[in-house]
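Lab notebook, page 48
Experiment: co-folding of the full assembly
Goal: obtain a model of how the components sit together before planning crosslinking
Operator: M.T.
Materials (sequences as entered):
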Amino acid sequence: MTGGRLHPFTLLAIAGTLPALAWILPAPAGGAVTTAVALVLTLTPGASPGLAGTGSSPGWRPGLVVLRTAVLTAAPFWLFLLLLHDVPSTIAIGLRLTTMIASVVWVGALLPPGRLVEAMVAAGWGVTAAYLFAAALSAVPLLKARAQRIVDAQRCRGLSPRGGLGRRLRALRALALPLVLSVLHEVDERALALETRGFVPGARRTPLAPPRDATAERVGRWLLLVGCAAALAWRLAWRG
Amino acid sequence: MARLTLERVSFWYPAMGRPALRDVSLAAAPGEVIALVGNVGAGASTLLLVAADLAPRVVGGKIEGRVNFRGRGKGEGGRGIVLPTPWTQLSGMAFTVWDEVAFGPANLGWPRERIAGAVDRSLAALDIGTLAARDPATLSGGELQRVVVAGIVAMEPALLLLDEPTAELDPEGAGLVWRLVRALAGDGCSIVVATSDLDALPEVADRVVWMEDGVVRRIGAPALLAEESVCEAGLATTVADVWRTARLGAPYPLTVAQAERRWRQ
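Observation: model returned without errors.
Model output:
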């Protein structure tokens, strides 16, 4: 079974368990194992669905992109750690941070937000909770597009975002103010639009494409939780 | 029996001393298309919010008079409104156009098969079936407008309220929306539309309501859009306005076809 077919909650459970174990298990061995697992996961088929099938080796090439993203994101942390700590501490903390970063990058590449929302609705979460999550994710591309339009409009009026620090700060202000104000202005209209489309607290929403949640996966998630708890207990009781 | 009735309705937005609507009375029958026309600040958008039960319930403010709607609460058999800014009407919970259109029906708790049927019909009616898999955030203004209209139509409302539904559309898209309006009215849906696309109204509207400063000035057949007082207010159809400017004599024709007939006489 590839990661892309797992239930969203299972993917989140894996992505949460690895960093937890990285911090619970003794360093550097524990961190090394979890980092290795997290990095291998980034290579699993199905990672980075937006890139699937674009390379000559579908399944691996997208995975390599995800792996590269994880490594490049983690690299600056290693650099800062090396400046602040000795080598053993850098390795211990760096491996833990890399596990966290690789897990997040992996699950981000693998899990379409819409699928997670469907899983939340199907699991009986309130529509408000699902909305908060989905709206936050869907707001990113919308805000990026709007920011670009504002930048274009300001450029038409002679504002240049290039040059020295002062000029860049002025350009930033000219971008941030209209962006924030326009978002605030839209809150009322968005509330009206949601209301008229039946999105009210307590609405009995139909999940459109609920992901299949196999018994084995549910058991697996509990095992991950129990495993974390056991590792923590072992660490506290016997290793200090 | 009217589906929507407003009796002497006045409405004040929060912290506003002057009413946005004053003593407005109007009734919409099943299958009727009513067009609200007026200049900026006439109160047409406010009237739609009141009719949609969003003002004052969600918007805030104060209302006097009676609003009576014969139908269910919302959506199916209820009332749906399309606001004039499509980019603020995305649900934020959908990552494809299909899911966006399905957002309303899903909130009504319909079975999935029924949702699928309603969404596919709605997408086809707005000619946006090819956009079904697209991310709504990547759509153009015109595409977005169609998606938003499709999202409301998919909920199968008994009363459809449209605020400038063709503002973002090209002539072809606008024509599509107006044909859909007539088709929905043919199925018994009551439609109240605020629009500045005056040239479309002779073919679309059963009645025209001329509003000014929150007050209903006149209610009548679309021929109202060729009357002298309406022409003076800048609310006539293009043909009527041209005819009047050319001093070709009243009564002014509403459409090109009428003008042609008059010219041949």
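Interpretation: The beta strands of chain B are 4-12, 21-28, 33-37, 62-69, 79-82, 159-163, 190-194, 207-212, 215-220.
Next step: discuss with group before ordering constructs.
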